Structure formats: C-alpha cells, structure tokens
Amino acid sequence: MRTCRIAPSILSADFARLGEEVRDVVDAGADWIHFDVMDNHYVPNLTVGPLVLQAIRPHTSVPIDVHLMVDPVDEIIPAFLKAGADIITFHCEASRHIDRTLQLIRQGGAKAGLVFNPATPLSYLDYELDRIDVVLLMSVNPGFGGQSFIESTLEKTVAVREKLDRYKAETGREVMLEIDGGVKPENIARIAAAGADTFVAGSAVFGAGGKSGYADVISRMKAAVAALD
Ligand SMILES: O=C(CO)[C@@H](O)[C@H](O)COP(=O)(O)O
Ligand SMILES: [Co+2]
C-alpha cells in the first residue's frame, strides 16, 4: 500500500482557536501538522513564530512540520527546535550555506527538509541527499494559502521520485517527498501517482467547516490515493 501522509496547513485555520483546531484536525485523521512561517521579507506575508509553535505543541503528539519561509534562516532555527518542531524545512534560496543549515536542524534533533519553489532547479539535491529527510516541492509560489496548483509540479515530482528511488536502491535510505500548495481531493491522486507521499492541504481541509468536514476531506484524500494501489 502506498504511503499517504496528510499535513493540514494551519495557515487556513481559525487562529483565535488554534489549539482546538489542531486537535480537531488530528482527530479527523491528519498525520502531520504543517506550520507555515512567513517573514514579510522572503515572502510578502507575515504569520507565526516559535511562540505560537510552543503554544500549540501540547495540543498534539503528531509530528509538527515547520515550513520556514524566512531569510536569513539559520538564526531562527534554534528557537523552533526548542519550541518542539519535529521537521524543519527551508528554501534553497534562503540559506547561504545549505549544507550547514541542514546540519543545524539535524544536530538539534529534528528531521531536515529542503524546499524548492516552482522555478528552483533540482540540482540543489545533487550532493546533499545524505543530509536530507524530506524534499518539499512547492506547487504554488510561496506566501499565501488558497492558490491554484501549478501543473508543472507533476513533472518535477516524477523527476524527484526517480532520484529518490535510485538513492534508496543505492543506500537503503528513504527520503520523503512532500507537495505543498493547491492540493485537494480532486487532484491528490494525480500528485500521488507522480510519486509524492506527503501532502500539505490548507484551504481544502480548513475550508471544510469544522471537525466532520475536516474528516470528510481527509478521508476522501486518503481514499483517492489508496485507489491507486
Ligand atoms: O506554504 C504554503 C504557502 O506558502 C502552504 O503551506 C499553503 O498554506 C497551503 O495552502 P493551500 O494551498 O493548501 O490552501
Ligand atoms: Co507550507
């Protein structure tokens, strides 16, 4: 059976009830919580930081996947590690020394991931796979929830899947492949067929109007992926 992790992005949650939203979406079947950090510098939007991560941490035991859309990145990583991040991903363009940033995250005890914008070349992966736990492909330009899925991401997903399968055959090590932006029950099967195993969904999940709506969307997403087997 193929792996399908659903990671709802709290960007589209009700921020006035964030702890409850996190609990509801996990009860509804979420595998990870996706935590979008934007700095109004690397991206034109401003969201949440380590204090908010620390506040939601006691509300769930599922992995919290911190997506850093910040530049510079290294200086803020220790605060997210301390606040309880399980996975920390950052953008290739936001780190001056990618290898050092990956090590900083892993030495702090979290899994490390590299994020590729729609136009970022995959060559950044060439020498770093040994230090990467997650490859995150953006399927929208970063900065906002609720955008449409960019179709060229599918071709890029296939290319990363081939690299990761080759790497696994050589080393036995599995690297996760996560897609972020515009993922919905209607397109998730095509994205999974291209080779993704982890799916961020913000507006599709939190736009579903409460706990039973969240459960409905998440189960439809999982069913669409399971139907590929
Ligand atoms: O990182 C980002 C946007 O920059 C994402 O995590 C979005 O928040 C996903 O939202 P939807 O596209 O699913 O609404
Ligand atoms: Co994100």
From TrEMBL:
Signal peptide: none annotated. Substrate binds at residues 9, 67, 143-146, 180-182, 202-203. It catalyses: D-ribulose 5-phosphate = D-xylulose 5-phosphate. GO terms for molecular function: D-ribulose-phosphate 3-epimerase activity. Keywords: Carbohydrate metabolism, Isomerase, Metal-binding. It comes from the Bacteria. Its cofactor is Co(2+); Mn(2+); a divalent metal cation; Fe(2+). Pathway: Carbohydrate degradation. InterPro entries: Aldolase_TIM (IPR013785), Ribul_P_3_epim (IPR026019), Ribul_P_3_epim-like (IPR000056), RibuloseP-bd_barrel (IPR011060). Catalyzes the reversible epimerization of D-ribulose 5-phosphate to D-xylulose 5-phosphate. This is Ribulose-phosphate 3-epimerase. It comes from Sutterella massiliensis. The gene is rpe.
